[in-house]
Specification:
two-stranded antiparallel ribbon; 16% strand; 134 residues
Length: 134
């Protein structure tokens, strides 16, 4: 994860290698230079019970890798299969671009970028789930 820059709002929390760190009263910027550090913004965290849609499940899998709770090598192929399944549903150009970015990031072990690309699909998924026939 070298080169990751986190811009934190006042009192924002981040998980770094299992420790929750809270920012102070002012905005701050942290540059993460240690490769393979396990980092997750807690505002971006998806709780297990919230991983109840296809995109949320893949996001949750990426999140588990970021926190160090899941092995990246072991989960690469299942995640790639899940992203491929999503590409059967999300066929518009913007979604395809996000899925391509997530795939590329996953292949290159950039799990934070993968999660970011997948999270961009959440609003679209919510809209699709809202209009599906009951």
């Amino acid at each position: 994860m070298s080169g990751l820059v986190l811009k934190l709002a006042p009192k924002e929390r981040v998980l770094v290698n299992g420790a929750v760190i809270e920012n102070g009263d002012r905005r701050s910027r942290l540059s993460i230079v240690t490769p393979d550090a396990h980092i997750l913004r807690l505002r971006d965290a998806i709780h297990p019970e919230e991983a109840n849609t296809p995109v949320r499940r893949v996001c949750y899998a990426a999140q588990l890798i970021l926190t160090g709770d899941s092995d990246p090598e072991e989960n690469r192929m299942p995640m790639l299969r899940n992203i491929e399944e999503l590409s059967q549903i999300f066929v518009d150009p913007d979604s395809r671009a996000n899925l391509a970015e997530a795939t590329d990031a996953l292949i290159n072990d950039n799990h934070y970028r993968c999660l970011k690309a997948l999270r961009a699909l959440l609003p679209r998924e919510e809209r699709l789930m809202a209009i599906r026939p009951s």
